[in-house]
Amino acid sequence: MSKNFDVVVIGGGPGGYIAAIRAAQLGFSVACIDEWKNAAGGPAPGGTCTNVGCIPSKALLQSSEHFEHAGHAFAEHGIDVKGLSLNLPQMLSRKDTVVKQNNDGILYLFKKNKITFFHGRGAFVKNDASGIELSVTGKTNESLIAKQVVIATGSNARALPGTPFDEKMILSNTGALAIGAVPKRLGVIGAGVIGLEMGSVWRRLGAEVTVLEGLPTFLGAVDEQIAKEAFKLFTKQGLGIQLGVKIGTITTGKKDVTVEYVDAKGDAQKAVFDKLIISIGRTPNTIGLNAEAIGLKLDERGFVQVDDQCKSSVTNVWAVGDVVRGPMLAHKAEEEGVAVAERIAGQHGHVNFNTVPWVIYTSPEIAWVGKNEQELKAAGVAYKAGSFPFLANGRARALGDTNGMVKFLADAKTDEILGVHIIGPSASELISEAVVAMEFRASAEDIARICHAHPSLSEATKEAALAVDKRALNF
User: Fold this and answer.
1) What range(s) does the FAD/NAD(P)-binding domain occupy (predicted)?
2) Domain 170-280 is in which class?
């Protein structure tokens, strides 16, 4: 016998579980279907982000940064560390504990909000006058009837053609987070967010890391000035980054992986690695949804086709997050999840893509919101730029972390902030001030006139805003 709900959410990642919670807050009867399993086979909601993405990668980034600081930076602070050693199993265990805490937190939130959770794989069965029927395949099979359905099934790592992931030698983000011993030679194909973050983790722990990127430019989506600074700092740290390469044959042996490629000069090269991480993007996770059963339209790449309200081609079926157009970011998925729940309730949910922040959690961190210089130039927008280096910031000096800068871009006539770009300590936290400012359509002068605590890293934000008008006070 089928179980009836007002709203059924397929997927328990950031977009899905947040949509379920907001729908429940609005008074709907809600169910969430999610198939992620923990090591014991139990439910592990949170999607890629919680299980093999944002959360575990940040745990390892933090642990590996502590290790690097203990080995190299503590002496400058008068802290002598003798006999430093790496306990990798404990580091990985801590990462797993952090993941489980987040899994359990989501299950608690489901219970708190009276959301019915089904552990299994959700798929469409049919759509008729009684509602939208879905099946749940798991330890126990269920049949659900929904008035409204929200698809939040996320994405999967994209493999190179002919080179499937085995998560032992050829690794996606999943395998990259669970390497049992530090590889002597680590190859990374793709110099995007995942490639740089995972490359940074294992470099800090002792691996010789080579990053092979097909594009001729480094971090093409990042402001060019910030990207150049990042390239300089990452290569100085020891990441071997090669741009403009063309990957050829990849051969997996018993103990190593051989990558043949053509470098930017056109010369044939060969590199041998103990492990190879492939991070060349992600694909929407729609296989198995049985979309055709209800006439749900997918595009040629497998994304659910939606309008600007996240409505699909089928009435009362919505989709959010990585499975639809737009940036594949957990917080973008969350905002869409909230907006859809509110639209179902007849409210006016809103998501402003122009104020979605982006972050790369390397050291230094990179964060930005809005337009970069190359985008403004291409669009013919007249703008003013102002920047301020952390080298001239008192708190950064006290921290011993003075790399990077804050950069403001503002409209030449109105002074409205068009974009803010940061590379440096705590960039992921500092960017929030810029997001708030841009949501309220603030000017650079507005930020320049706000009192910022001293000494703080946020003073670099104020100084960069002052620099737009060429009146920075400390540089």
Assistant:
1) 5-337
2) alpha beta
- Summarised one tens digit per residue, pLDDT across range 31-70 is 999 999 999 999 999 999 999 999 999 999 999 999 999 9
Judged on CB neighbours under 10 Å (0-12, 13-18, 19+), 414 is: exposed
Residue 441's identity, in one-letter code, is R
**Residue 1: per-residue pLDDT:** 86
Question: From 3.50.50.60, 3.40.50.300, 3.10.20.310, 3.30.390.30, which CATH number describes the 355-468 domain?
Answer: 3.30.390.30
Mean pLDDT, rounded, of the chain: 98
238 and 209 Cβ atoms separated by less than 8 Å: yes
From 279, 294, 330, select the one nearest 13 (Cα to Cα).
330
- Average pLDDT for 465-473: 98
Which class does domain 3-157+283-351 fall in? alpha beta
Global pTM reads 0.97
Tell me: cis bond preceding 389? Omega within 30 of 0 counts: no
Active site residues: 454
